[in-house]
Task: inverse folding
C-alpha cells in the first residue's frame, strides 16, 4: 500500500505514508476489512481440502505486501503444505526483507517444491539462484515460464524466447501480463516488439505496454504508438503512450494529438514537459526557443511573446497552460494579456501590459514546477490556427519553464459497446502442480 498527496503530487510519484503514518495505517486496516469480506479473497484463503490457510498466507494471497515477513516465518512450519504455499506467495510478493528466510529454505528444506519456489523468489529479488537456470529448461512449461520471468525481471534474457511465446499464447491473465510486459522491457527484447504492439488494443494493458516499448527503444514502434496515442480515451494511458513516443524520438508529429489532450476537460498533466523534451513546444502553441528563453529570463519584467495557436478545437475558447512554480514561500503573481498599443513603433520602448485586457494568476511554491491550466477570456481575441502577440509579466519569485495556448477540445467519445462473448475468461495457465 502507498499513500499519495494528490494536491502536491498529482502524478502520484512520492509515497507519503511515512509522513502520514497513522493515516496510512488506518487506511490499510480499512482495506484489510474490505478484502476479508470479499468473496474472491475468502475463496483464495481455502486449501484444496477445505481447510483455511493461516491468516498471513490469506493476506499474502490477496497481495498484501505487509504480510511478507509473517509469511516468511511459515517457511519453518512443520506442515509441508504451508511451507510450499508460503514460498509460492513470497515469489508473488517479491519483498527484499524475506530473502534471508528464502535462502535458508533453498539450502535446507528437503521438499523440492519449496526449493523451487525459493529459488525463483530469490532470482526475482535480484539475488540469483543456480536452481533457476535449471528451471528455465524444466520439462514442465509452467516452471519454464516462471523461471524465465524471474530471470528477465533481474535483467537476464536467457528465457526471452519462452516469455515471447508465453505472451503470444493468450494464456496470461492481466496481473501476469503486466509482469511479463515489464520483464520484456527490462531485457529490451526486440523480438517482443511486434507481439506487444499487437496487444495495444487491450485498454487495460496499454499503459504497461507503452512503458515496456519505451524501455526496448525500437524506433519502428513509433507509428503504431502514435496511432494509439491519437485515439486514446484514458488519461493514464495517454501519459504512458506520450512518454514512450518521446523515448523513441518522436517530435512535432505528436503536437496535434497532444494539443487536443491539453485542451480537453482533464488535460494531460505533463504535456508541456513532454513537448519540451521532444523539442516541439512552438508547434503546440508555445513560443519558439528564443521566445521561451526571454520568458525564462523575464522575472520582474514584462516581455513580449509570440505564439501560433494549434488549429481545430471545439470553438468554445482557448486555454493557457503554464509550467512553473514560485521560488519563494508564498505564491508568485503572473499576468498575461495583450500589449498596450504604442504611439510610435520603437523596439527600444518597454513592453506594457494593457490594463484592461489581461488575466492574473499565481504559481504555487514547490520543489518542482507544476502544470497549471487556465481558460483565457474571449476579450483577448485569440483564435485557433492564428498567430498572436502577447505580453507577459511575472513577479521576481515566478519561475516559468514553458507555456502554450491551445484550443479547448471535447473528449473522445466512447466506442459502441461490444457484444458479450460467452465463455470469455481472464484465467492464467502458469499454475504448477504443488502436490496439495
Result:
Amino acid at each position: 500500500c502507498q499513500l499519495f498527496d494528490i494536491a502536491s503530487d498529482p502524478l502520484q510519484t512520492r509515497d507519503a505514508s511515512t509522513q502520514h503514518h497513522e493515516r496510512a495505517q488506518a487506511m490499510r486496516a480499512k482495506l484489510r476489512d474490505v478484502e476479508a469480506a470479499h468473496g474472491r479473497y475468502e475463496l483464495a484463503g481455502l486449501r484444496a481440502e477445505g481447510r483455511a490457510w493461516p491468516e498471513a498466507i490469506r493476506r499474502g494471497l490477496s497481495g498484501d505486501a505487509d504480510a511478507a515477513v509473517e509469511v516468511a516465518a511459515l517457511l519453518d512450519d512443520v506442515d509441508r503444505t504451508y511451507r510450499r504455499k508460503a514460498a509460492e506467495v513470497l515469489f508473488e510478493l517479491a519483498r527484499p526483507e524475506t530473502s534471508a528466510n528464502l535462502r535458508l529454505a533453498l539450502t535446507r528444506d528437503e521438499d523440492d517444491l519449496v526449493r523451487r519456489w525459493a529459488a525463483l523468489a530469490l532470482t526475482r529479488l535480484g539475488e540469483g539462484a543456480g536452481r533457476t537456470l535449471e528451471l528455465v529448461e524444466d520439462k514442465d512449461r509452467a516452471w519454464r515460464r516462471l523461471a524465465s520471468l524471474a530471470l528477465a525481471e533481474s535483467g537476464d534474457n536467457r528465457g526471452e524466447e519462452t516469455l515471447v511465446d508465453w505472451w503470444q499464447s493468450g494464456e496470461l491473465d492481466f496481473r501476469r501480463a503486466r509482469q511479463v510486459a515489464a520483464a520484456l522491457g527490462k531485457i529490451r527484447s526486440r523480438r517482443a516488439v511486434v507481439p506487444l504492439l499487437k496487444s495495444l488494443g487491450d485498454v487495460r494493458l496499454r499503459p504497461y505496454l507503452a512503458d515496456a516499448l519505451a524501455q526496448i527503444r525500437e524506433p519502428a514502434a513509433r507509428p503504431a504508438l502514435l496511432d494509439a496515442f491519437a485515439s486514446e480515451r484514458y488519461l493514464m494511458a495517454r501519459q504512458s503512450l506520450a512518454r514512450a513516443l518521446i523515448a523513441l524520438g518522436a517530435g512535432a508529429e505528436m503536437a496535434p494529438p497532444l494539443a487536443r489532450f491539453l485542451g480537453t476537460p482533464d488535460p494531460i498533466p505533463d504535456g508541456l514537459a513532454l513537448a519540451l523534451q521532444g523539442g516541439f513546444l512552438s508547434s503546440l502553441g508555445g513560443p519558439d526557443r528564443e521566445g521561451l528563453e526571454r520568458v525564462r529570463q523575464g522575472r520582474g519584467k514584462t516581455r513580449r511573446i509570440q505564439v501560433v495557436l494549434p488549429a481545430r478545437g471545439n470553438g468554445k475558447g482557448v486555454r493557457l497552460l503554464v509550467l512553473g512554480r514560485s521560488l519563494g514561500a508564498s505564491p508568485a503573481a503572473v499576468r498575461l494579456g495583450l500589449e498596450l498599443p504604442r504611439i510610435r513603433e520603437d523596439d527600444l520602448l518597454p513592453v506594457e501590459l494593457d490594463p484592461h485586457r489581461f488575466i492574473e494568476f499565481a504559481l504555487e511554491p514547490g520543489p518542482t514546477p507544476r502544470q497549471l491550466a487556465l481558460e483565457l477570456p474571449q476579450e483577448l481575441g485569440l483564435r485557433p490556427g492564428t498567430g498572436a502577440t502577447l505580453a507577459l509579466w511575472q513577479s521576481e519569485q515566478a519561475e516559468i519553464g514553458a507555456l502554450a495556448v491551445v484550443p479547448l477540445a471535447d473528449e473522445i467519445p466512447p466506442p459502441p459497446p461490444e457484444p458479450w462473448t460467452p465463455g470469455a475468461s481472464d484465467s492464467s495457465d502458469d499454475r504448477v502442480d504443488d502436490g496439495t
Observations:
- The chain has a mean pLDDT of 90.
- The two ends are 30 Å apart (CA to CA).
- The beta strands are 302-308, 318-326, 332-339, 353-363, 370-375, 387-394, 398-407.
